[in-house]
Amino acid sequence: MSRKYLIAGNWKMNKTPADGADLAKEIAAFVTKDESVEVVICPTAVALDRVSSVIEGSAVKLGAQNLYPKASGAYTGEISAEMLRAVFAKYVVLGHSERREYFGETDAFVNEKVKFSLENNLNPILCIGETLEQREADETLEVNKTQLLGGLEGVSEEDMPKVVIAYEPVWAIGTGKTATPEMAQEVHAAIRSELAAKYGEAVAEKVRILYGGSMKPANADELLAMKDIDGGLIGGAALDAKSFSDLIASAR
Ligand code: PEP
Questions:
Q1: From ligand 1's centre to the CA of 199, what distance in Å?
Q2: Does the CB atom of residue 63 touch ligand 1 within 6 A?
Q3: How many domains does the chain have?
Q4: What is the ipTM of this complex?
Q5: Is pLDDT at 220 greater than 70 in this prediction?
Q6: Domain that holds residue 39
Q7: Is residue 1 part of a domain?
């Protein structure tokens, strides 16, 4: 497989800038320059600048948790792509289920953000995933297809290798419940075949599809062994240097 594993830590609304800097220092010490795994950490907006200085010169990359799809202006509380680039962010998490649920983000809005991030040299990590009710109603593949194609509307074939998809079943996020490797693989394979239908096989083979949802050192090996799982988007287990390092080691 030519896809490089990606382990991304989503710190959500955790860690002050000082605490984030300490954690980033420990992670940077663990990640080698010739790392076979791409490692990204996504602190809160106020910690981005400080964490960026700490990881400068290391192999750890910086990601943001959100952006607003306008260049600048009267958008109180929001953060622009230019601001993220100014602190050397390379990735941005978009469409996380928490943003869809608590902040009413729709596929159309997430799509605007995905396109805006690509236009501004930021790699989007597009999150999709079904709720428990949707899984129980046998709607899993349909829901993921809708969110995938909605988020990628108008995204060109050339830009697709810069896009990362994160499949995050909502019922598995922060709950301690993980999809079995087989359950996750089924959805990952379906996502890849949707990408192949839209962009062709060669492009679909290049796109990394991460699993997210209570991924931890104890279950990482078997999830990462699946053919279409190319890494993880990690919440809780990314807040501790030891467990995050163990996850990186699992992906090596
Ligand atoms: C996430 O929110 O992206 C996530 C996967 O969280 P957790 O690992 O805590 O389930």
A1: 28
A2: no
A3: 1
A4: 0.96
A5: yes
A6: 6-251
A7: no
Active site residues: 96, 168
Question: How far is it, in rounded angstroms, from Cα 47 to Cα 195?
Answer: 34
d(CA 194, CA 128): 13
The annotation status of 12 as a binding-site residue, yes or no, is: yes
pLDDT of res. 1: 52
| Rg (the chain; Cα; Å) | 17
Say what the pTM is. Answer: 0.97
Say which range, 33-37, 49-53, 90-94, 187-191, has the weakest mean pLDDT.
Answer: 33-37
Is residue 72, in this structure, part of any structural domain at all? yes
- Biggest CA-to-CA distance, the chain: 48
- Residue count of the chain: 252
Identify which of 216, 234, 240 to mutate to test ligand 1's pocket (most ligand atoms within 8 A of the CB): 234
pLDDT tens by residue, 141-166: 999 999 999 999 999 999 999 999 99
Is 17 part of a structural domain of the chain? yes
- Is residue 246 domain-resident? yes
Atom 1, ligand 1: residue with shortest CA distance: 235
CATH number, domain of 204, equals 3.20.20.70
CA 206 to chain centre: 16
CA of 150 to the centre of ligand 1 (A): 22
Check residue 177 and give its pLDDT: 83
Pocket residue to mutate for ligand 1, from 6, 10, 101, most atoms within 8 A of Cβ: 10
Element (H, E) at 236: none
